């Protein structure tokens, strides 16, 4: 697959102050993109942007709390005023809050919080940024998913995922997968490509620091963010290729 030249492209990564989001932003900046570090805590965003800038990248922080429509709208206004468009949106910010609970013991407050961030927040950001993405000659949206959200993999006989039953996190990410397909179908005539990424288990705060380096997980995200015109839309991918829905 052809990879677009990242130089001159404007990329917003939500939740980019740490973890896979940070590594994605860093890798896009290393390829020449201007990266906007979305962070709900602006000070954390500024620190991440400074780090990327110190390594020679072009980065700036944007305050963005994805569940707060006013914060997201302000970010979109700022990006519009400064750049007039957005080429790449990585919907990375998410929470996983229910460690060790079975579905039968779900905490409804936490369930709501996870859906609010992982699903509703992703939709708020996507819809607020779409007018800017439509101004790009090759808009790309990457939604961060997980292999756990694959209905095929979790329901397979003897699935290694059968023992992982985080209802809120997993089902909210399955909703993100569904949203990925729906947006891809809507936006197909515009050339904006929308795909879901499975970074694999990465050592971050969200995973209690188990797994591969976050920079390895970021690779597939960067690949999807820079898909050429012949690249897919409405798919689910990890570093090895297609993931079954
Ligand atoms: N780590 C893994 O093994 C793994 C595997 C599969 C998929 N993923 C996915 O990869 C993505 C990144 O996860 P990660 O492991 O890098 O997690 P992480 O280190 O916990 O980072 C999550 C980021 O999201 C931000 N965030 C959370 N809620 C937010 C909100 N309401 N508004 C704005 N920002 C918010 C966090 O900000 P604060 O710093 O302010 O909390 C942080 O920057 C997530 O979508 C996750 O589901 C991770």
Describe the structure.
The protein is an alpha/beta fold. The protein has helices spanning 19-30, 42-54, 69-83, 108-133, 151-155, 167-187, 214-225; strands spanning 10-13, 34-39, 58-63, 88-91, 140-144, 193-197, 236-238, 241-242. The mean pLDDT is 97. It has an eight-stranded mixed β-sheet, sandwiched between helices. The chain is built from seven helices and eight strands. It has a single domain (10-242), classed as NAD(P)-binding Rossmann-like Domain (Rossmann fold, 3-Layer(aba) Sandwich). It binds NADP nicotinamide-adenine-dinucleotide phosphate.
Question: Helix and strand layout, with pairings?
Answer:
Elements: E1 10-13, H1 19-30, E2 34-39, H2 42-54, E3 58-63, H3 69-83, E4 88-91, H4 108-133, E5 140-144, H5 151-155, H6 167-187, E6 193-197, H7 214-225, E7 236-238, E8 241-242
Parallel strand pairs: 1-2, 1-4, 2-3, 4-5, 5-6, 6-7
Antiparallel strand pairs: 7-8
Helix pairs in contact: 1-7, 3-4, 4-6
NADP nicotinamide-adenine-dinucleotide phosphate is lined by residues 14-15, 17-21, 40-41, 44, 64-67, 92-95, 117, 121, 144, 146, 199, 201-202, 204-207, 211, 214.
